[in-house]
Predict the structure.
Amino acid sequence: MNNEFAEAGDAMDFFDDDYDAPALRSVLVANRGEIALRVFRTAAEFGIRTIALYTDLDADAPHVMAADEAVRVDSYLDIHAVVAAAVHADAEAIHPGYGFLSERAAFARAVEAAGIRLVGPTAVVMEQMGRKDAAREIAVAAGVPVIPAYDLATPVAELAFPVLVKAAAGGGGKGMRVVRSADEYADALAAAAREAQSAFGDDTLLIEKYIESGRHIEVQVMADTRGNVLHLLERDCSTQRRHQKVLEEAPGPTVTPKLRTKITEAAVALARAVDYTGAGTVEFLVDNATGEPYFLEMNTRLQVEHPVTELALGDYDLVEMQLRAAAGQGLEFDQEDAEAQAHAIEARVYAEDSHHGFLPQAGTARVVHWPDAETSRLVREDAADVVRVDHALLSGQVVSTAYDPMLGKVIAHGRDRETARRNLLAALDETAIFGLTTNAGFLRQLVASDEFADATIDTAWLDHNEVPAPAPELARALAAHAVADAVLGQGAGPFASDAWRASGDQVPVLVELDEPISVVRDGTVSQIGEWKIRTLDRVRLGVGAAERLEVSVDGEREVVFVDGGLNSGHAVEVVHRGQRFVFTRPDPFAPAGHELAEGELTAPMPGTVLAVSTEVGHRVQAGEALVIMEAMKMELTLKAPFDGVVASVHAAVGDQVALGAPLVVVEPEQTEAP
């Protein structure tokens, strides 16, 4: 294995202090991807030997290549295998990362039994705070306000809808359903329990009052083994969809000094009540109607969004603090030191098609370009050194549906929120992933919206509002420009091309650009005057690697990435403002493809069939659930499009199906003529 991080220091200098705390010389990260890389980065800075885990799917993954040593396991969720791997590698500590086993008390207990240090709280604390039901009781005892809840045995007739059904274990929005009527209740319970069992191995549920409009505010706490518990201010994670966080920022843009004092003091008191150690996050929901905060849960681990806290506070490293706490050292800062020095915003980049139902995506990321200080400086002069990317996705890497769809995190900060927001826009403009659809374009549109700029987005906003898809016209024009380059050399002057259409569009769109467009390539500028894209014959497509172009339209500079070599030269792929466009040319000699029948249900994403609740000859009603699929821990129910009879079933429980695979065909029920 090959350590790619900064030159190591002396581990003894890091961990031996006045209290003679024992040194840590090795750490195994029981996680994968950018999570493992994040921990390795800090560990390597202090000369700590890094050990990776990997499954067969991850044999060549970046986190495996970056570690000093790697051990194969069949599953990241196999507690026995993970602990055995740590013993085999002679690891002194295990860092669980976030997700997977990070909040499993059984895992913490197994680590402790093996004589290995867990970089996190004890098993007892995880049992108390890692479960929402137990944590709720502790919060009530500590005087922390909680959301009104119902007993699971409460008759449905006595529930005041809407209610929130949620998993007692785990987090990340898994196993959550908003229920607005008694008719939906039974199905929501079953679906939430199924999802919770799949994600956390525990199908216990809680039922709470659902607050229609609120802000999700969480407090980062840090505690050592000597009784010191401090907070690192708050984060606002209100921009979320179906309880899955999309954007996070610190500090909270709407948090008043009074509210900050109330929630930070409550968070510290809660951590003290259970003798917490290490990094933890106490989450609150602030009711917009009353301004009152309610305790939601405590995450007994490092959070995905921890970078915004690090960047907002300045020179802070939460992983370093975790390792110090695990080694028995005390915290090296006082509460008054934890003051915001900047504003930071994080965007989570997922393998999903946000503009088509947020469906998970899979495939090969042929070309990957993440933003950095150098390219961002070309867009905004003050953007240098304010962009951070935590990722584990490289060009040529295969993205499967076996794991969480998050590919990386783009984080930007600035002297104030508006500067941070503009820097994030510049960074997302520089994010380009070819071969795989991601939500980067959706994120860019969202960050640019007036609602986000004005900090008016609450936890339910994305569930009720649509973020418009980026316009395809400039991308289509640049696709045609790539063709002209191949055919006409550097291609100055007016030109015309085939009928270009975005994949899925049925009708080619005529594009007329009345203003000149300047294309900057390798420092040279070629200007194309008024040019049109219209249907013509005999246009050959160019083949080449992806290029980064700076395009000036109406005096505004845009960054566009173009790859003219897709599918052996029969398509052009363009990424503009993070959004991936694929433009194809109709082939008149291609055989006609399969045309979908009106009632044919196909797989809207690659994944696993969880349930098939119909059979041939079954009479169905419009909206009746027929198939349930899962991909990347997300469930999707496919329903009958109209009243009719099931003509054929092509899927069975457990099947792994590809995108577009036929599942069920429903035909209208035939009626006899009078």
Notes: The chain has a mean pLDDT of 83.
